[in-house]
Amino acid sequence: MSLSRCLLATLPLLLLAYFPAVxxxxxxxxxxxxxxxxxxxxxxxxxxxxxxxxxxxxxxTNSVHYKPCSDLGEYKGAKPFCRKIEQTIxxxxxxxxxxxxxxxxxxxxxxCYNLANDDHVEIVCQCFLDGCNSAHHFSAAGAAMAxxxxxxxxxxx
Length: 157
Fold this sequence. Notes:
Elements: H1 3-9, H2 11-18, H3 27-30, E1 41-43, E2 45-46, E3 66-68, E4 81-89, E5 95-103, E6 112-116, E7 120-127, H4 139-156
Antiparallel strand pairs: 1-3, 2-5, 4-5, 4-7, 6-7
């Protein structure tokens, strides 16, 4: 059975696990129409380099990882937002890596979505409030999806 067939077979379970994480975007709740708004603050780190990145707590505004998304050249004129990526890397015994950063290309419909290929899966979430990409956000749905996708990979191997 190929990975893609396994993913198709488990799609109903993935959708059930994933559905609570799919929410209406918060972006419209905070957009005041002004281009001169202060920069958003996001946690910016990678657990592959900074081990404490994996377990950041909400409201840890004194963390060294809590920084403004202020490099406007990097965002090509788009309004930055916070992003959290949970990767499960199959080739490394299903190691989970957490990446928190600023983003500028929004998913048009979903605040959380998943991507998969033969060597890893990732759950990508976007949010639009200061510090919203801390550890507690999206973790239940993300863990369920990662477990199902990891099981799928084991069955295929």
